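Section handout 9: paired folding examples.
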Amino acid sequence: MGSPFTISIFAKDSLQAAAAANVAFRCADSLNTILSDYIDSSELNRLNATSGQGRYVPVSAALFDILQYSLEAAGKSGGSYDISMGPVVKLWRKARKEEKLPDPDSLKRALQKVGFRYIHLNTAERSVWLEKTGMHLDLGGLGKGYVAQAAFNTIQAAGFNCVMVNAGGKIVLGDPPPGRDGWRIGITIPEEREKIMPRLLLLKNTSVATSGDVYQHLDIDGKRYSHIINPKTGLGITWQRNVTVIVKDGTLSDWLATACSVLSEKKAFRLARRVGAALLITEIVNDRLVEKSTADFKSHFEN
C-alpha cells in the first residue's frame, strides 16, 4: 500500500519467529493484492469496474470483511470517514503532482459519484452492489490498520505474543519486550518529519495510529491542503494538526485517526469517547506545541 511494513518479534527460537513473520508478510502481500487501488488488477479495482451495473458482485471474505468495517466506520463517524471518496482522492493525487488545486467543475462531478450509502452489502451471499456509475472505493485511512491487525493475528496464532507490526505508522502491539513495561512509541510533532514529542508512549496489547499532513500535502497561495479530504466538501483539510488514537483494534485506530482529523475537535473527542479510544490532538500555535487529549490518554505516556 505504498508504505514500509515491519514486524518485530521477541522469541527464544529465531527460526520459528522468522517462519511466523514470513507467513505474516505473505498475508500482508495477499491482502495488498485484494485491497489496493494502486494495483489495476486488484479485487477492489475489479469491483470498482462494476459500479452502476445494477447487480451484486460476489467478493472474497477479506474484501467483504473490510467493506463491512468501512461502512460501520462511515456510520459511526457521521460520514467523516467515507470509503467511496475514490473519485475525489484521484483528483487530489493529480493536484499534488501538478501543484495546483483540482478544477472546480471536475471536483463537482467527482462528488456526484460518492456516497457510502450507495454501497450495498448482501451478507447471505457475500456480495456487493455499487449503485452509482463511476463509484471508486478507496481504502486509504483504514486499509493499513486492517492489514497490520491481520498480520499481527497471524503471528499471535503461531504462538508469539511479544510482537509489534508497523504498517506505515499504523501500529499493532502485543506483550512488551522482555524486561520492559511496554513498547516505547514516539509521536511526531505537527509539520515535522523527524522531530518527536519529548514524552514517549509506553504501550502493550493495543494499537496506535497517527494522522497528519507532513508527508502528503499541497501548498497554494500560502494555504496548505492535506491529503486527508473532508467528504462533505471534497477539499483537503487546511488545519495543521496531528491526531493520535490508541484503541485495541488496528483497523479501528486507523479510521478513527482519519475521521478525527476531519471532524471538529469537539466532535472528534465525542466520537473517541463513544468508541472507547484515547485521543490526542496536537498543533503548533504561535510557534508553540499545543496538546489536547481525552483524560485517559496521559496515562499512556512513559513516566
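Moving on to protein 2 of 2.
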Amino acid sequence: MSANKPLALTLGEPAGIGPDIALAAWTRRKELALPPFYLAADRRFLEARSKRLGLKIPTADVAPAQAHGTFADALPVVDIGVAATAEPGKPDDSSAAAAIASIRRAVDDVRAGRAAAVVTNPIAKSVLYRVGFKHPGHTEYLAELAVDGAQQPPRPVMMLWSPVLAVIPVTIHVALREAVAQLTTRDIVETCTIAAIELKRRFGIANPRIAVSGLNPHAGEEATLGKEDVEIVAPAVASLKASGIDARGPLPADTMFHAAARKTYDCAVCMYHDQALIPIKTLAFEDAVNVTLGLPFIRTSPDHGTAFDIAGTGRANPSSLIAALRLAARMVGPSPAEAK
C-alpha cells in the first residue's frame, strides 16, 4: 500500500459486532494476506471482548507508524483516549463517545498522512442521536471531518460496491415520499459526475459507464406512469452526456440488474435507497462494501449494521469487513516498492 501506511479501522458501536469482526479479521490476516491495519479503540475493552469470544488475541498499543511492524504478531491498537464499557447488545453511556472518538482519530490520522485510508465499522445512529449527534449518518459526519473550520464540506456520495455490481442511490435515508419530493436534475447530475470522477481516479476505469435508472415503473412509460422520468431524470442524462460522461437512461429498474445487463455498465445510479440496495444485497450480501465517494480520502465500510442480537456470540461474519479492508487497499494502490 501507498508509502507502507496502515489502514485505520474504527471501533464502530462498541455494543455491536464491530469489535467482533475486527478481531475475527485479524485472526485471518495470514490466511487471507490482509493489508495491515490498526484499530482505533480502547485496548482494555478489546481484550475483554476477545476473552468473551473465547479468543486469545494479543494486542499492542502503538502509534500508527508502528502498525506494520506489529501486525503479524499482535493486533495493533491506537488509543482513542476514551474508555468503552458497553456489554454486547447493550449500548451504554460510553458508547457514543467511544464511537465518535474512534472515527475522529482515524480521520485525523489519514488527513495527517499517518494512515492510508479509513475503514469504518458499523455505528448505531440512534445511540449517537441521544447525545446530540446532528448528522444523518456516518457519511455526512466524515464529510464534515474532511475539512477545517468554515470550509464547505464536500458532497459525499454513497456507493455500494461488489465484484458483480456497483450501485449508488441519489437519495438515501429518507422516506420514499420524501425521496420523490427531493429528487432533482441537479442532484442526479452531481451524483453521477462524482461517480464518474471517482471511478476513474480510485478504480482505474478510463471511461466509466453509468446506467441511470428511472424513478417510476418502466421509467415512466412515456410519462403515463409519472412525469418525473421525462422532466427530471432524462434532462440529467442529457446534461451528463453533453459534459462527456458515458451515461444512459432513464432505464427501467426492473431490467437493469440481470447478468447480461450488468455487463453493459460499471455503476448503476438509482433514484432512491431500496432501488439500489435491494439488488446488491441480493447478489452480494456478504461481499458488498460501502464506499464513500467525493471525500479527499478513501473510506470503505462493511455493508451491514451493528447486529446487536449476535454481538459477543462469535456468530458475526467478518466477510464484509474483510472485503472493505481489501477494497480500501486496492483503492490506495501499491507502494512504490510494490509497484516495481
